[in-house]
Amino acid sequence: MLTRSLINIESGRDAGDSRPAENDSLVGEFAHDLMRALASQPRAISPKYFYDEQGSQLFDRICELPEYYPTRTELGILARNAEDIASQMGPHAEIVEFGAGSLRKVRLLLDAMDRPARFLPIDISGEHLARSAAALQDDYPGLDVQPVVADYTQRMLLPAALPGAGRRVGFFPGSTIGNFTPPEALHFLQVAGQVLRGGALLLGADLVKEPAVLHAAYNDAQGVTAAFNLNLLARANRELGTRFVLDQFAHSAFYNAPQQRIEMHLVSRRRQKIALGGECYEFDEGETLHTENSYKFTIESLRALAMRAGFRPGPVWTDEDKLFSVHWLHAPA
Question: What is the value of pTM for the model shown?
Fold first, then answer.
């Protein structure tokens, strides 16, 4: 059953509080990180700040775009291999989904699982998570659903395992692992290994491919990805009182082949000044704020990364065109 309130790891209070979780400690963190980014050269900020309510909705739209292959490809892999994956999980397994979002992909697993014990979706956007979890609960009334509002890139303290539950299985789809720098990816996997000790992690990872395919995926014809990128500035205006003029910044996304990553930037169209926290920050024309990396992997490189974090690689599932991969990784004992 769905718990009536969201668990908030950072504050220790629930989402029944009249103040949304995003509007206190997380907003302060956003302000701190944005000021640090604006004061740095080159300027860069974590992509986790894309995901306020508006950003989460825009990302859901991105997942439906014809150019954006990762979502439909991963969904296809999960659908074709759900029974095999469920057999790896075993009966009464508990799923922990990191960066849960709209909770679309986990349904394919739940439908194939043998009496899942509990589902713990973790996301930084509490409002979006609450709605998604409530919709999931309506469709799976016998499932214990406990949404957790948290930054899953930080140390996590999750509820203790239920009596009689099977293994705890992490679910990290969407190749979100690619948004981390290599040291950050290693750190996340090490943290996940501690949370999932004795269980496993089901991880989606985008694969290295033709640059033209990648360019199209991050520069869609409808401009939804551009709006998603620019929403970071719009969020700063809403939450922090900045006065970014959105049409004075341009979306830029390109494949950095030597680094095997897509880079997303916001490019200043003119010389301009931004005030935040009593300081004034100046952008020259053409200067950028680096908002996201999306690293691409080979199957071998992903497995090597997982082993460095203490995981033992298991089966790997891919699509026919080898665009995307889903990995079963045994967590440390």
Answer: 0.87
